[in-house]
Amino acid sequence: MLESTIKNIQSPELEERGRSIYSKHELFLLVQQQQEKSPSLSSQTIPSLLAKSNEILNRQKKFLLNKEYEKEQILKLEEKQQLKSQYKPLNEIEIQRLQLIKEKFERGQAIDIVFDPRPYPFKILLQNSYPLINSDVHFLIEQPHVAYVHITINGIQIPLVAVRRHDDTFLLKFRPILAGDYLIILKDYIGQLIPGCPYNFPVYNPNGTHIEPFNRLQSINDCHFICNIDNVGQGKFFVMIYDPLKPIRIPCQIQNLSKNRIRISFLPSKIGTYKIYIAYRNIPINGKCIYLLCK
Questions:
Q1: Among 42, 49, 113, 128, fewest CB within 10 Å belongs to which?
Q2: Does residue 47 sit in the same domain as residue 174?
Q3: How far is CA 2 from each of CA 6, 31, 41, rounded to the nearest angstrom?
Q4: DSSP string, the chain
Q5: Phi, psi at residue 246, to the nearest 5°?
Q6: What's the pLDDT at 132?
Q7: CA-CA distance, 162 to 156, in Å (whole number)?
Q8: Beta strand 261-266 with 283-284: parallel, antiparallel or unpaired?
Q9: Residue 156 and residue 149: Cα distance in Å, rounded?
């Protein structure tokens, strides 16, 4: 009689609901309903049905995890195939450009223009070739109609020191402590903006970006390294990876791990040693290139 009643509960309604849809609470209510219909139903039926429910739920979880893993593997394979399809031999012009960039890296120079003083309507006096944090910047204001100078970054007003010269010009000085793009605002005596304002004024921190220690011998299927950025301002990475034995452009992927950590990965076409040049805001990181042996 007991076996007949248990089969009665699992047959037609449990089968119809899909074997694993029932929660523990639903099974408890279902057994209560069956007990009202069949008073001889044993109290041991509830734990038995709950155990069956747990088993089915565990099977479902395992199935979903396997599906998710398969999906991830398919995506990784597609990414690798996409990267491989982007391999492109360099032509003569690109090889010459590559050589020029390599020379700039070797000398520790910016690989492109990082600061151009020509657009500003005042003279800029720097201690270096481009504005750096913790380094004085001087502006020589020679326009007689300029009566107000205002400098901000991220909404913060920057204090200025003004010195009036004997020829009725002003020498302004400030020392940036944050890297990023400053805004310079000039106004005349009636508070009107000087045409062209605000002027964007970039300040750099070459020491704010560095590569974390990494294994220089890596698997060809997982070549990567991580960059840390701190107080460097908004900008873009420049990554150049090439095989010294064959001029091929090797694509890479840049992934944000957190606000200050960047993961750079690439998929070499073959085993070998690769040269990697990295710059941020056109300024080389770690000075020269790094070597990575992919096996």
A1: 113
A2: no
A3: 6, 13, 6
A4: -HHHHHHHHIIIIIHHTTSS---HHHHHHHHHHHHHH-TT--TTHHHHHHHHHHHHHHHHHHHHHHHHHHHHHHHHHHHHHHHHHT-EE--HHHHHHHHHHHHHHHHT--SS-----TTSSSEEEESSSS-BTTS-EEEEE--TT--EEEEEETTEEPP-EEEE-TTS-EEEEE---S-EEEEEEEE-TTSPBPTTPSEEEEEB-GGGEEEPP--SEE-TT-EEEEEEE-S--S--EEEEEEETTEEEE--EEEEE-SSSEEEEEE--SSSEEEEEEEEETTEESSSS-EEEEE-
A5: -150, 125
A6: 94
A7: 19
A8: unpaired
A9: 14
pTM over 0.70: no
Same domain, 6 and 64: yes
* Amino acid type, 184: I
Task: Quote the tokens at residue 206.
Answer: 């070459």
Query: How many structural domains does the chain have?
Result: 3
pLDDT per 10-residue tile (average), the chain, 295 residues: 42 44 55 56 59 73 71 58 57 82 85 90 90 93 86 92 80 93 92 90 91 87 88 87 74 87 86 87 81 82
Last residue of some domain: 138, 168, 203? 203
| pLDDT score recorded for residue 13 | 44
| Domain housing 137 | 123-203
**Contact of 248 with 242, CB cutoff 8 Å:** yes
Q: What is the pLDDT of residue 231?
A: 84
Q: What is the pLDDT of residues 99-149, one digit of tens each?
A: 888 888 888 888 888 899 998 989 999 988 899 999 999 999 888 888 889
Both 242 and 282 in one domain: the answer is yes
Which two three-digit tokens encode residue 292?
A: 């990575």
Domain C-terminal end among 203, 235, 269? 203
Instruction: Provide CB contacts within 8 A for 247, sequence distance 6+.
Output: 89, 90, 94, 95, 98
How does pLDDT run across 79-100, given as a tens digit for each residue? 555 555 456 677 788 778 888 8
